[in-house]
UniProtKB/TrEMBL annotation:
Keywords: Membrane, Transmembrane, Transmembrane helix. InterPro entries: Adenylate-forming_domain. It comes from Wolfiporia cocos (strain MD-104) (Brown rot fungus). The chain crosses the membrane at residues 89-109, 134-150, 162-183, 199-221, 233-254, 274-295. PANTHER family: TRANSMEMBRANE PROTEIN. This is Non-ribosomal peptide synthetase.
Length: 499
Protein backbone atom coordinates (compact mmCIF):
# COMPACT_ATOMS: atom_id res chain seq x y z
CA UNK A 1 0.00 0.00 0.00
CA UNK A 2 1.26 3.43 -0.92
CA UNK A 3 2.53 5.71 1.80
CA UNK A 4 -0.11 8.18 0.62
CA UNK A 5 -2.71 6.01 2.31
CA UNK A 6 -1.09 6.18 5.74
CA UNK A 7 -3.92 7.01 8.16
CA UNK A 8 -3.81 10.36 9.87
CA UNK A 9 -6.24 12.40 11.93
CA UNK A 10 -9.14 13.53 9.69
CA UNK A 11 -10.23 17.13 9.50
CA UNK A 12 -13.64 17.82 11.03
CA UNK A 13 -14.34 20.33 8.27
CA UNK A 14 -13.05 21.18 4.84
CA UNK A 15 -10.58 23.66 3.50
CA UNK A 16 -12.27 27.03 2.96
CA UNK A 17 -10.52 27.59 -0.38
CA UNK A 18 -11.70 24.27 -1.75
CA UNK A 19 -15.22 25.04 -0.52
CA UNK A 20 -15.33 28.71 -1.43
CA UNK A 21 -18.80 29.99 -0.82
CA UNK A 22 -19.82 27.19 1.51
CA UNK A 23 -19.95 29.58 4.45
CA UNK A 24 -21.47 32.45 2.53
CA UNK A 25 -25.01 31.85 3.74
CA UNK A 26 -27.12 34.84 2.91
CA UNK A 27 -30.48 33.42 3.88
CA UNK A 28 -29.65 32.31 7.40
CA UNK A 29 -27.20 33.18 10.20
CA UNK A 30 -25.59 30.82 12.63
CA UNK A 31 -23.53 30.91 15.83
CA UNK A 32 -19.71 30.53 15.75
CA UNK A 33 -18.48 27.18 14.47
CA UNK A 34 -15.14 25.63 15.31
CA UNK A 35 -13.53 24.30 12.13
CA UNK A 36 -10.28 22.42 11.67
CA UNK A 37 -8.58 23.31 8.39
CA UNK A 38 -6.32 20.83 6.64
CA UNK A 39 -3.28 22.31 4.90
CA UNK A 40 -2.39 19.69 2.29
CA UNK A 41 0.91 21.29 1.29
CA UNK A 42 2.38 21.26 4.78
CA UNK A 43 0.34 18.24 5.91
CA UNK A 44 -0.64 20.03 9.10
CA UNK A 45 -3.92 20.42 10.95
CA UNK A 46 -4.63 23.95 12.14
CA UNK A 47 -7.54 24.96 14.32
CA UNK A 48 -9.40 28.13 13.50
CA UNK A 49 -12.70 29.63 14.61
CA UNK A 50 -14.91 30.97 11.86
CA UNK A 51 -17.62 33.32 13.00
CA UNK A 52 -20.80 34.05 11.11
CA UNK A 53 -22.78 37.11 12.19
CA UNK A 54 -25.37 36.38 14.84
CA UNK A 55 -28.96 36.33 13.63
CA UNK A 56 -30.92 39.56 13.85
CA UNK A 57 -33.93 39.54 16.12
CA UNK A 58 -37.20 39.46 14.29
CA UNK A 59 -40.11 41.43 15.61
CA UNK A 60 -42.74 39.09 14.21
CA UNK A 61 -43.13 35.76 15.95
CA UNK A 62 -43.15 32.62 13.81
CA UNK A 63 -46.60 31.34 12.82
CA UNK A 64 -48.24 28.96 15.24
CA UNK A 65 -47.72 25.33 14.36
CA UNK A 66 -50.78 23.37 13.34
CA UNK A 67 -50.59 19.61 13.52
CA UNK A 68 -51.21 18.10 10.07
CA UNK A 69 -54.49 16.22 9.69
CA UNK A 70 -54.63 12.45 9.34
CA UNK A 71 -55.80 11.42 5.92
CA UNK A 72 -57.73 8.23 5.29
CA UNK A 73 -56.22 6.14 2.52
CA UNK A 74 -58.29 3.74 0.44
CA UNK A 75 -57.50 0.04 0.37
CA UNK A 76 -57.03 0.28 -3.38
CA UNK A 77 -54.16 2.76 -2.94
CA UNK A 78 -52.59 0.57 -0.26
CA UNK A 79 -52.84 -2.41 -2.61
CA UNK A 80 -51.23 -0.47 -5.45
CA UNK A 81 -48.34 0.54 -3.23
CA UNK A 82 -47.86 -3.00 -1.92
CA UNK A 83 -48.15 -4.77 -5.27
CA UNK A 84 -45.62 -2.52 -6.93
CA UNK A 85 -43.46 -3.13 -9.99
CA UNK A 86 -40.95 -5.09 -7.90
CA UNK A 87 -43.56 -7.67 -6.96
CA UNK A 88 -45.00 -7.66 -10.48
CA UNK A 89 -41.60 -8.45 -12.01
CA UNK A 90 -41.03 -11.09 -9.34
CA UNK A 91 -44.40 -12.64 -10.14
CA UNK A 92 -43.66 -12.77 -13.87
CA UNK A 93 -40.13 -14.18 -13.63
CA UNK A 94 -40.98 -16.69 -10.90
CA UNK A 95 -44.27 -17.80 -12.49
CA UNK A 96 -42.66 -18.48 -15.87
CA UNK A 97 -40.09 -20.69 -14.15
CA UNK A 98 -42.70 -22.52 -12.09
CA UNK A 99 -44.79 -23.24 -15.20
CA UNK A 100 -41.73 -24.65 -16.95
CA UNK A 101 -40.85 -26.58 -13.79
CA UNK A 102 -44.34 -28.10 -13.82
CA UNK A 103 -43.87 -29.29 -17.39
CA UNK A 104 -40.51 -30.78 -16.43
CA UNK A 105 -41.60 -32.78 -13.35
CA UNK A 106 -44.76 -33.99 -15.13
CA UNK A 107 -42.66 -35.57 -17.86
CA UNK A 108 -43.76 -33.21 -20.63
CA UNK A 109 -40.37 -31.52 -20.94
CA UNK A 110 -37.56 -34.08 -20.54
CA UNK A 111 -35.02 -31.53 -21.78
CA UNK A 112 -35.25 -29.64 -18.46
CA UNK A 113 -34.64 -32.83 -16.49
CA UNK A 114 -31.60 -33.74 -18.56
CA UNK A 115 -30.17 -30.22 -18.38
CA UNK A 116 -31.39 -29.26 -14.92
CA UNK A 117 -27.98 -27.80 -14.07
CA UNK A 118 -28.19 -25.45 -17.05
CA UNK A 119 -31.70 -24.36 -16.02
CA UNK A 120 -30.43 -23.57 -12.51
CA UNK A 121 -27.24 -21.77 -13.49
CA UNK A 122 -29.07 -19.92 -16.28
CA UNK A 123 -31.44 -18.42 -13.71
CA UNK A 124 -28.56 -17.57 -11.37
CA UNK A 125 -26.84 -15.91 -14.34
CA UNK A 126 -29.79 -13.59 -14.98
CA UNK A 127 -30.19 -12.92 -11.26
CA UNK A 128 -26.58 -11.86 -10.77
CA UNK A 129 -26.49 -9.84 -14.01
CA UNK A 130 -29.40 -7.65 -12.91
CA UNK A 131 -27.51 -6.71 -9.71
CA UNK A 132 -24.34 -5.88 -11.65
CA UNK A 133 -23.45 -2.19 -11.37
CA UNK A 134 -21.94 -2.02 -14.87
CA UNK A 135 -24.99 -3.60 -16.51
CA UNK A 136 -27.24 -1.30 -14.50
CA UNK A 137 -25.34 1.81 -15.58
CA UNK A 138 -25.66 0.77 -19.23
CA UNK A 139 -29.42 0.31 -18.83
CA UNK A 140 -29.82 3.75 -17.23
CA UNK A 141 -27.60 5.33 -19.89
CA UNK A 142 -29.62 3.72 -22.69
CA UNK A 143 -32.98 4.83 -21.27
CA UNK A 144 -31.80 8.37 -20.42
CA UNK A 145 -30.26 8.79 -23.88
CA UNK A 146 -33.13 7.42 -25.95
CA UNK A 147 -36.27 8.54 -24.12
CA UNK A 148 -35.46 11.79 -22.29
CA UNK A 149 -38.31 14.33 -22.31
CA UNK A 150 -39.73 13.67 -25.81
CA UNK A 151 -41.43 10.30 -25.22
CA UNK A 152 -44.91 10.01 -23.62
CA UNK A 153 -44.92 10.58 -19.86
CA UNK A 154 -46.46 7.16 -19.17
CA UNK A 155 -43.61 5.48 -21.03
CA UNK A 156 -40.98 7.44 -19.11
CA UNK A 157 -42.65 6.61 -15.81
CA UNK A 158 -42.74 2.94 -16.80
CA UNK A 159 -39.02 3.03 -17.67
CA UNK A 160 -38.18 4.55 -14.29
CA UNK A 161 -40.36 2.03 -12.48
CA UNK A 162 -38.79 -0.98 -14.22
CA UNK A 163 -35.23 0.28 -13.69
CA UNK A 164 -35.88 0.94 -9.99
CA UNK A 165 -37.47 -2.47 -9.43
CA UNK A 166 -35.16 -4.76 -11.41
CA UNK A 167 -34.57 -6.50 -8.09
CA UNK A 168 -37.89 -8.28 -8.64
CA UNK A 169 -36.36 -10.23 -11.55
CA UNK A 170 -33.19 -10.76 -9.50
CA UNK A 171 -35.18 -12.33 -6.66
CA UNK A 172 -37.56 -14.30 -8.88
CA UNK A 173 -34.77 -15.89 -10.92
CA UNK A 174 -32.64 -16.56 -7.83
CA UNK A 175 -35.40 -18.48 -6.02
CA UNK A 176 -36.31 -20.28 -9.24
CA UNK A 177 -32.64 -21.20 -9.69
CA UNK A 178 -32.59 -22.82 -6.24
CA UNK A 179 -35.70 -24.85 -7.20
CA UNK A 180 -34.14 -26.00 -10.48
CA UNK A 181 -30.91 -26.87 -8.67
CA UNK A 182 -32.86 -28.95 -6.16
CA UNK A 183 -34.53 -30.79 -9.04
CA UNK A 184 -31.12 -31.49 -10.57
CA UNK A 185 -29.74 -32.84 -7.29
CA UNK A 186 -32.83 -35.02 -6.76
CA UNK A 187 -32.44 -36.40 -10.30
CA UNK A 188 -28.78 -37.25 -9.61
CA UNK A 189 -29.83 -38.95 -6.35
CA UNK A 190 -32.58 -40.98 -8.08
CA UNK A 191 -30.10 -42.13 -10.70
CA UNK A 192 -27.15 -42.32 -8.33
CA UNK A 193 -26.12 -45.69 -9.77
CA UNK A 194 -25.24 -43.92 -13.02
CA UNK A 195 -23.20 -41.15 -11.35
CA UNK A 196 -20.02 -41.00 -9.38
CA UNK A 197 -20.72 -40.38 -5.68
CA UNK A 198 -18.68 -37.16 -5.76
CA UNK A 199 -21.19 -35.60 -8.16
CA UNK A 200 -24.00 -36.18 -5.67
CA UNK A 201 -21.91 -34.89 -2.74
CA UNK A 202 -21.06 -31.59 -4.42
CA UNK A 203 -24.62 -31.28 -5.68
CA UNK A 204 -25.89 -31.39 -2.10
CA UNK A 205 -23.22 -28.93 -0.92
CA UNK A 206 -23.95 -26.34 -3.62
CA UNK A 207 -27.67 -26.72 -2.95
CA UNK A 208 -27.21 -26.02 0.77
CA UNK A 209 -24.99 -23.02 0.01
CA UNK A 210 -27.56 -21.52 -2.36
CA UNK A 211 -30.44 -22.07 0.07
CA UNK A 212 -28.53 -20.26 2.83
CA UNK A 213 -27.68 -17.46 0.40
CA UNK A 214 -31.35 -17.16 -0.54
CA UNK A 215 -32.61 -16.93 3.04
CA UNK A 216 -29.88 -14.42 3.96
CA UNK A 217 -31.16 -12.15 1.20
CA UNK A 218 -34.76 -11.99 2.46
CA UNK A 219 -35.98 -8.37 2.96
CA UNK A 220 -36.45 -8.83 6.72
CA UNK A 221 -32.83 -9.97 7.13
CA UNK A 222 -31.46 -7.32 4.81
CA UNK A 223 -33.34 -4.41 6.35
CA UNK A 224 -33.03 -5.33 10.04
CA UNK A 225 -29.75 -7.29 10.21
CA UNK A 226 -27.60 -5.73 7.50
CA UNK A 227 -24.32 -7.22 8.74
CA UNK A 228 -25.83 -10.71 8.75
CA UNK A 229 -27.02 -10.16 5.20
CA UNK A 230 -23.61 -8.90 4.09
CA UNK A 231 -21.69 -11.81 5.56
CA UNK A 232 -23.98 -14.68 4.68
CA UNK A 233 -25.48 -13.54 1.39
CA UNK A 234 -22.12 -12.50 -0.05
CA UNK A 235 -19.70 -15.06 1.32
CA UNK A 236 -22.07 -18.01 1.10
CA UNK A 237 -22.91 -16.85 -2.42
CA UNK A 238 -19.23 -16.92 -3.31
CA UNK A 239 -18.98 -20.38 -1.74
CA UNK A 240 -21.95 -21.46 -3.84
CA UNK A 241 -20.22 -20.13 -6.98
CA UNK A 242 -17.09 -22.14 -6.21
CA UNK A 243 -19.09 -25.29 -5.51
CA UNK A 244 -21.14 -24.68 -8.67
CA UNK A 245 -17.97 -24.83 -10.71
CA UNK A 246 -17.06 -28.20 -9.21
CA UNK A 247 -20.60 -29.60 -9.52
CA UNK A 248 -21.02 -28.46 -13.14
CA UNK A 249 -17.59 -29.65 -14.23
CA UNK A 250 -18.03 -33.03 -12.55
CA UNK A 251 -21.46 -33.45 -14.07
CA UNK A 252 -20.13 -32.56 -17.53
CA UNK A 253 -16.95 -34.65 -17.27
CA UNK A 254 -18.58 -37.84 -16.02
CA UNK A 255 -20.01 -39.99 -18.82
CA UNK A 256 -23.06 -41.83 -17.47
CA UNK A 257 -23.01 -44.28 -20.41
CA UNK A 258 -19.42 -45.52 -19.96
CA UNK A 259 -19.31 -44.72 -16.19
CA UNK A 260 -15.95 -43.06 -16.75
CA UNK A 261 -14.52 -39.54 -16.58
CA UNK A 262 -14.29 -37.81 -19.95
CA UNK A 263 -11.64 -35.16 -19.40
CA UNK A 264 -11.80 -33.90 -22.97
CA UNK A 265 -11.93 -30.12 -23.00
CA UNK A 266 -13.81 -30.33 -26.30
CA UNK A 267 -16.69 -32.07 -24.53
CA UNK A 268 -16.83 -29.51 -21.69
CA UNK A 269 -16.91 -26.39 -23.87
CA UNK A 270 -19.89 -27.79 -25.74
CA UNK A 271 -21.98 -27.88 -22.55
CA UNK A 272 -24.29 -24.91 -22.05
CA UNK A 273 -24.12 -24.97 -18.25
CA UNK A 274 -20.33 -24.49 -18.51
CA UNK A 275 -20.83 -21.15 -20.33
CA UNK A 276 -23.60 -20.13 -17.95
CA UNK A 277 -21.34 -20.54 -14.94
CA UNK A 278 -18.61 -18.56 -16.73
CA UNK A 279 -21.08 -15.74 -17.29
CA UNK A 280 -22.18 -15.84 -13.65
CA UNK A 281 -18.55 -15.67 -12.53
CA UNK A 282 -17.83 -12.65 -14.74
CA UNK A 283 -20.88 -10.73 -13.48
CA UNK A 284 -19.86 -11.37 -9.86
CA UNK A 285 -16.16 -10.56 -10.24
CA UNK A 286 -16.40 -7.54 -12.58
CA UNK A 287 -17.59 -4.91 -10.03
CA UNK A 288 -14.92 -5.99 -7.55
CA UNK A 289 -12.07 -5.10 -9.89
CA UNK A 290 -13.24 -1.47 -9.49
CA UNK A 291 -12.71 -1.56 -5.71
CA UNK A 292 -10.12 0.92 -4.44
CA UNK A 293 -8.85 2.31 -1.14
CA UNK A 294 -9.07 6.09 -1.33
CA UNK A 295 -8.21 9.12 0.77
CA UNK A 296 -11.12 10.99 2.30
CA UNK A 297 -11.78 13.98 4.53
CA UNK A 298 -14.55 13.82 7.10
CA UNK A 299 -16.54 16.73 8.45
CA UNK A 300 -18.32 16.13 11.75
CA UNK A 301 -20.89 18.91 12.09
CA UNK A 302 -22.75 16.97 14.80
CA UNK A 303 -22.71 13.64 16.58
CA UNK A 304 -25.50 12.48 14.27
CA UNK A 305 -23.83 12.90 10.89
CA UNK A 306 -20.50 12.37 9.16
CA UNK A 307 -19.99 14.15 5.84
CA UNK A 308 -17.39 12.34 3.72
CA UNK A 309 -15.51 14.21 0.99
CA UNK A 310 -13.97 12.36 -1.97
CA UNK A 311 -11.90 13.56 -4.90
CA UNK A 312 -13.55 14.26 -8.32
CA UNK A 313 -17.06 15.24 -9.28
CA UNK A 314 -19.97 13.00 -10.21
CA UNK A 315 -23.14 13.14 -12.24
CA UNK A 316 -26.37 13.21 -10.26
CA UNK A 317 -28.40 10.19 -9.21
CA UNK A 318 -25.56 7.90 -8.15
CA UNK A 319 -24.96 5.85 -5.01
CA UNK A 320 -21.55 4.95 -3.60
CA UNK A 321 -20.66 1.81 -1.66
CA UNK A 322 -18.09 2.26 1.10
CA UNK A 323 -16.49 0.02 3.71
CA UNK A 324 -13.59 -0.10 6.14
CA UNK A 325 -12.68 -3.49 4.68
CA UNK A 326 -11.97 -4.51 1.10
CA UNK A 327 -14.65 -7.23 1.02
CA UNK A 328 -16.88 -6.88 4.09
CA UNK A 329 -19.93 -4.82 5.05
CA UNK A 330 -20.34 -2.37 2.20
CA UNK A 331 -22.94 0.35 2.75
CA UNK A 332 -24.53 2.48 0.03
CA UNK A 333 -25.03 6.24 0.38
CA UNK A 334 -26.28 8.91 -1.98
CA UNK A 335 -23.64 11.08 -3.66
CA UNK A 336 -23.77 14.88 -3.61
CA UNK A 337 -21.81 16.68 -6.30
CA UNK A 338 -21.99 19.93 -8.23
CA UNK A 339 -21.29 18.07 -11.47
CA UNK A 340 -18.89 15.69 -13.26
CA UNK A 341 -16.25 18.43 -13.49
CA UNK A 342 -16.39 19.44 -9.82
CA UNK A 343 -13.38 18.95 -7.61
CA UNK A 344 -15.17 16.87 -4.96
CA UNK A 345 -18.20 14.76 -4.25
CA UNK A 346 -19.74 14.03 -0.84
CA UNK A 347 -21.68 11.44 1.13
CA UNK A 348 -23.93 12.28 4.08
CA UNK A 349 -23.80 9.34 6.51
CA UNK A 350 -26.36 9.50 9.31
CA UNK A 351 -25.61 7.55 12.48
CA UNK A 352 -27.89 4.49 12.41
CA UNK A 353 -25.71 1.45 13.07
CA UNK A 354 -22.23 0.30 14.03
CA UNK A 355 -20.63 1.28 10.74
CA UNK A 356 -21.96 4.84 10.58
CA UNK A 357 -21.37 5.33 14.31
CA UNK A 358 -17.72 4.39 13.82
CA UNK A 359 -17.38 7.14 11.19
CA UNK A 360 -18.19 9.67 13.91
CA UNK A 361 -16.44 8.06 16.88
CA UNK A 362 -13.36 6.86 15.00
CA UNK A 363 -13.12 8.76 11.68
CA UNK A 364 -10.90 6.99 9.14
CA UNK A 365 -8.49 8.81 6.82
CA UNK A 366 -8.95 6.23 4.06
CA UNK A 367 -11.88 4.07 3.07
CA UNK A 368 -12.65 1.32 0.57
CA UNK A 369 -15.09 2.13 -2.20
CA UNK A 370 -16.11 0.96 -5.65
CA UNK A 371 -14.98 3.55 -8.16
CA UNK A 372 -17.83 2.50 -10.44
CA UNK A 373 -20.92 3.96 -8.78
CA UNK A 374 -24.38 2.46 -8.63
CA UNK A 375 -27.19 4.24 -10.50
CA UNK A 376 -30.21 5.12 -8.34
CA UNK A 377 -33.73 6.11 -9.26
CA UNK A 378 -32.75 9.81 -9.30
CA UNK A 379 -30.53 9.09 -12.28
CA UNK A 380 -33.69 8.96 -14.41
CA UNK A 381 -34.49 12.58 -13.52
CA UNK A 382 -33.07 13.39 -16.96
CA UNK A 383 -36.19 11.81 -18.46
CA UNK A 384 -38.49 14.50 -17.06
CA UNK A 385 -39.04 18.13 -17.97
CA UNK A 386 -39.66 19.21 -14.36
CA UNK A 387 -39.78 17.35 -11.07
CA UNK A 388 -39.78 17.50 -7.28
CA UNK A 389 -37.18 15.88 -5.02
CA UNK A 390 -38.52 15.57 -1.46
CA UNK A 391 -36.46 14.09 1.36
CA UNK A 392 -36.24 13.96 5.15
CA UNK A 393 -33.20 14.02 7.42
CA UNK A 394 -30.07 12.48 5.91
CA UNK A 395 -32.05 11.57 2.81
CA UNK A 396 -30.73 14.87 1.48
CA UNK A 397 -27.61 12.93 0.48
CA UNK A 398 -29.53 11.09 -2.22
CA UNK A 399 -31.60 14.08 -3.33
CA UNK A 400 -29.41 17.17 -3.37
CA UNK A 401 -27.28 16.46 -6.46
CA UNK A 402 -30.35 16.23 -8.70
CA UNK A 403 -31.51 19.72 -7.72
CA UNK A 404 -28.00 21.17 -7.87
CA UNK A 405 -27.30 19.89 -11.38
CA UNK A 406 -30.71 20.56 -12.90
CA UNK A 407 -32.55 23.92 -12.75
CA UNK A 408 -35.83 22.13 -13.42
CA UNK A 409 -35.99 20.24 -10.13
CA UNK A 410 -37.47 21.56 -6.88
CA UNK A 411 -36.00 20.53 -3.50
CA UNK A 412 -38.11 19.94 -0.39
CA UNK A 413 -36.25 18.99 2.77
CA UNK A 414 -37.96 18.18 6.08
CA UNK A 415 -35.87 17.81 9.21
CA UNK A 416 -34.48 19.50 12.29
CA UNK A 417 -31.59 22.00 12.60
CA UNK A 418 -30.41 21.71 9.02
CA UNK A 419 -27.27 23.83 9.44
CA UNK A 420 -26.33 22.42 12.84
CA UNK A 421 -26.90 18.84 11.69
CA UNK A 422 -25.17 18.93 8.30
CA UNK A 423 -22.67 21.74 8.75
CA UNK A 424 -21.45 24.56 6.47
CA UNK A 425 -20.47 22.39 3.52
CA UNK A 426 -23.88 20.91 2.76
CA UNK A 427 -25.66 24.17 3.63
CA UNK A 428 -23.31 26.03 1.31
CA UNK A 429 -23.97 23.63 -1.54
CA UNK A 430 -27.69 24.33 -1.21
CA UNK A 431 -27.55 28.12 -1.01
CA UNK A 432 -24.79 28.46 -3.61
CA UNK A 433 -26.35 26.26 -6.28
CA UNK A 434 -30.13 26.36 -5.80
CA UNK A 435 -32.14 29.55 -6.12
CA UNK A 436 -34.40 30.40 -3.13
CA UNK A 437 -37.50 29.95 -5.27
CA UNK A 438 -36.42 26.36 -6.02
CA UNK A 439 -36.28 24.92 -2.52
CA UNK A 440 -38.27 24.64 0.68
CA UNK A 441 -36.38 23.76 3.87
CA UNK A 442 -38.82 22.86 6.65
CA UNK A 443 -37.09 22.98 10.02
CA UNK A 444 -39.41 21.08 12.36
CA UNK A 445 -37.62 22.50 15.40
CA UNK A 446 -38.23 26.09 14.34
CA UNK A 447 -41.75 25.48 13.07
CA UNK A 448 -42.75 23.27 15.98
CA UNK A 449 -43.34 19.99 14.16
CA UNK A 450 -43.69 18.16 10.86
CA UNK A 451 -45.66 19.73 8.00
CA UNK A 452 -48.71 18.55 6.10
CA UNK A 453 -46.68 16.85 3.38
CA UNK A 454 -49.75 16.08 1.31
CA UNK A 455 -50.65 19.76 1.11
CA UNK A 456 -47.08 20.79 0.34
CA UNK A 457 -46.69 18.19 -2.40
CA UNK A 458 -50.02 19.10 -3.97
CA UNK A 459 -49.29 22.83 -4.03
CA UNK A 460 -45.68 22.57 -5.21
CA UNK A 461 -46.54 19.91 -7.81
CA UNK A 462 -49.11 22.16 -9.49
CA UNK A 463 -47.28 25.47 -9.09
CA UNK A 464 -43.98 24.01 -10.31
CA UNK A 465 -45.77 22.09 -13.12
CA UNK A 466 -43.84 18.97 -12.21
CA UNK A 467 -44.18 15.62 -13.94
CA UNK A 468 -42.96 13.38 -11.13
CA UNK A 469 -41.95 13.28 -7.46
CA UNK A 470 -38.94 11.34 -6.10
CA UNK A 471 -39.05 10.56 -2.36
CA UNK A 472 -36.24 9.64 0.04
CA UNK A 473 -37.27 9.10 3.65
CA UNK A 474 -37.55 6.54 6.43
CA UNK A 475 -40.21 3.82 6.27
CA UNK A 476 -42.97 5.88 7.92
CA UNK A 477 -42.24 9.07 6.02
CA UNK A 478 -41.90 7.25 2.73
CA UNK A 479 -45.25 5.46 3.20
CA UNK A 480 -46.99 8.69 4.18
CA UNK A 481 -45.74 10.62 1.15
CA UNK A 482 -46.30 7.76 -1.30
CA UNK A 483 -49.90 7.46 -0.09
CA UNK A 484 -50.36 11.24 -0.37
CA UNK A 485 -49.07 11.30 -3.95
CA UNK A 486 -51.25 8.36 -4.99
CA UNK A 487 -54.32 9.99 -3.44
CA UNK A 488 -53.58 13.24 -5.30
CA UNK A 489 -52.87 11.47 -8.60
CA UNK A 490 -49.21 12.54 -8.56
CA UNK A 491 -46.68 10.13 -10.18
CA UNK A 492 -44.08 9.24 -7.55
CA UNK A 493 -41.21 6.91 -6.71
CA UNK A 494 -40.06 6.26 -3.17
CA UNK A 495 -37.42 4.45 -1.15
CA UNK A 496 -37.37 0.68 -1.63
CA UNK A 497 -37.96 -1.55 1.39
CA UNK A 498 -38.75 -4.85 -0.35
CA UNK A 499 -35.54 -5.52 -2.28
Amino acid sequence: MSSELTPRVPAPAYDSDAEKGALDLQVRSVPPVEVALHDEKQDLIKAQVLTVPAPEKKEAAPPAYTKPPKYKVSKWILWQLWYNTYRKLFTISFSVNIILFGFAVSGHWPYAIKYGGAMAVGNFNVSVLLRNEIFGRFLYLFVNTCFAKWSPLKWRLACTSVLQHLGGIHTGCAIAGVIWLTLRVVDVFVHHAEYNNSVLVFGVLVNVAMVVTMFAGFPWVRNTHHNVFERWHRFMGWTGLFLSWIFILMGDLYDTDTRRWNVSGYHVVHQQDFWYVIGMTVWIVLPWICTRRVLIDIELPSNKVAVLRFERGMQQGLLGRISRSAVKEYHAFGIISEGPHAKYHYMVCGVQGDFTRSLVNDPPRTIWTRELKLAGVSNTSKLYKRGIRICTGTGIGAALATCIQSPYWYLIWIGSDQYKTFGPTISGLITRNIEPERYLLWDSKVRGGRPDTRKILREVYHSWKAEVVFITSNYVGNSEMMQACKAEGIPCFGTLWDF
